[in-house]
Amino acid sequence: MQMPEPDQEVLARRSEIVDALRAIVPGEGVIADTREMRPYESDGLTAYRTVPMIVVLPETVAQVAAVLKYCHENGVKVVPRGSGTSLSGGALPLADGVLLGLGKFNRILDIDFDNRTVTAQPGVTNLGITTAVQHEGFYYAPDPSSQIACSIGGNVAENSGGVHCLKYGLTTNNILGLEMVTVEGEIMRLGGKHLDSEGYDLMGLMTGSEGLLAVVTEVTVRILKKPASLRALLLGFPTSEQAGACVAAIIGAGIIPGGMEMMDNPAINAAEDFVNAGYPREAGALLIVELDGPEVEVDTLIERVREIAEANGSTTLRVSDSEEERNAFWAGRKAAFPAVGRISPDYMCMDGTIPRRQLPEILTRMTRMSEKYGLRVANVFHAGDGNLHPLILFDANQPGELDRAEAFGADILKACVELGGVLTGEHGVGVEKRDLMPEMFSETDLNQQMRVKCAWDPKGLLNPGKVFPTLHRCAELGRMHIHRGQLPFPDIPRF
Ligand SMILES: Cc1cc2nc3c(=O)[nH]c(=O)nc-3n(C[C@H](O)[C@H](O)[C@H](O)COP(=O)(O)OP(=O)(O)OC[C@H]3O[C@@H](n4cnc5c(N)ncnc54)[C@H](O)[C@@H]3O)c2cc1C
């Protein structure tokens, strides 16, 4: 994986840059010692590591603005970082860049039960928002499995999702207001506590922008009242095809569960070994279907889902009768990633999306790919929205296995696109899927997206090397045309 070449001219100015940043963020807010910067060298995509040039940990919005203004005026690249749980390498540092950590922005600023909103600093964890309001029976719906650690700022940047997003939407559907700082150091506010905002939908644009457009310094989210009743079904099927057909039949019947997750046999067994959730080890696929709402409605829906599951050949069927049992059903699914970590020295978590009806086809293709690459795969899906998380198992200490795992992962994502889906469901593009972007987008599409990037960051200083497979100079965008095999601007780095 190629990254932009470190700029030697910037590196030569390192001590001058450190001094300038220390004047903005005094005390321990600037880290320049290599050993102390090591914890920041990677994010959740640990296959890639780079020690940043400098780590800066501001505490106020004014400091963020001053750091960005300084970096902009002095041609220094900046990589924003929340909690560093990105699985696509979005927070991977640059050797000639500042890593801007937002971890000290960890305060809830406002809780407004009348308007059903919480305003939080970007470093507050996803779960921290629910924790702050649960005493009044409220919660924040998007729930990534990393929710104890990932930050709400990172959730906005990645448009993160989770089990409950099938019914309640992704981050983009649950935020109402943002404060952010542009690369020039200007502070902007979008939206507020109200449902709609004027002008272009810049909040939509910011959500999922992976730290390439601006730095988020405050987030206002919508909170929901906890449903009166929550019950889950644990359904085992002989094959993934039958489980997939059951998912389609449930949605087709007009039922939108609060969550609907699928695991294949290797994932079932890894999770069962880890948490003893009572999963049927022999099942080819497992579905967890959660229904929420008023008690009478939930009871009726449970019966309807039960009938649909039986009609689709379920061989195990359990319904939770208590909160403990419902939590036990989820425990294995929530712990699926660490559980798989116990059966393989390394694994790579992919994230692609397919139309639901293509589930059997993608599974068949993955089995063939698994044989071709000689690597095992365990599958965990957000089944309701067609979002796949194949976990490719490998051993990085075996020569060539990482390369094979990456090639396997790329083939899965290409297959997702071929089957009418998309490259990412919720983990973002980062560096992981960057070079696959042309599989999904034409050059015209990509240029148009880069023009948006250029409008916000004409010097290309915010998180360069991520998302886009080619580093265009903004001034030249639009004139990129290969004429008779002659590539204009041959000196522009292409990753
Ligand atoms: C075990 C595990 C399970 C996971 N499960 C899920 C899941 O179920 N669903 C899901 O969607 N994701 C999941 N993830 C991925 C990850 O947790 C999310 O992408 C999360 O939103 C990243 O948040 P973070 O604070 O760690 O961001 P980081 O990793 O620090 O950064 C992610 C990206 O956001 C940018 N960024 C961070 N903060 C800001 C900011 N304040 N302003 C501008 N840009 C910013 C960074 O530059 C980077 O591009 C999982 C990760 C792990 C390790």
Automatic annotation (TrEMBL):
<dbReference type="InterPro" id="IPR016164">
    <property type="entry name" value="FAD-linked_Oxase-like_C"/>
</dbReference>
<keyword id="KW-0285">Flavoprotein</keyword>
<dbReference type="GO" id="GO:0071949">
    <property type="term" value="F:FAD binding"/>
</dbReference>
<dbReference type="InterPro" id="IPR036318">
    <property type="entry name" value="FAD-bd_PCMH-like_sf"/>
</dbReference>
<dbReference type="InterPro" id="IPR016169">
    <property type="entry name" value="FAD-bd_PCMH_sub2"/>
</dbReference>
<dbReference type="Pfam" id="PF02913">
    <property type="entry name" value="FAD-oxidase_C"/>
</dbReference>
<feature type="domain" description="FAD-binding PCMH-type">
    <location>
        <begin position="48"/>
        <end position="226"/>
    </location>
</feature>
<dbReference type="Pfam" id="PF01565">
    <property type="entry name" value="FAD_binding_4"/>
</dbReference>
<dbReference type="InterPro" id="IPR016171">
    <property type="entry name" value="Vanillyl_alc_oxidase_C-sub2"/>
</dbReference>
<dbReference type="GO" id="GO:0016491">
    <property type="term" value="F:oxidoreductase activity"/>
</dbReference>
<dbReference type="InterPro" id="IPR016166">
    <property type="entry name" value="FAD-bd_PCMH"/>
</dbReference>
<protein>
    <submittedName>
        <fullName>Glycolate oxidase</fullName>
    </submittedName>
</protein>
<dbReference type="InterPro" id="IPR006094">
    <property type="entry name" value="Oxid_FAD_bind_N"/>
</dbReference>
<keyword id="KW-0274">FAD</keyword>
<dbReference type="InterPro" id="IPR051914">
    <property type="entry name" value="FAD-linked_OxidoTrans_Type4"/>
</dbReference>
<keyword id="KW-0560">Oxidoreductase</keyword>
<dbReference type="InterPro" id="IPR004113">
    <property type="entry name" value="FAD-bd_oxidored_4_C"/>
</dbReference>
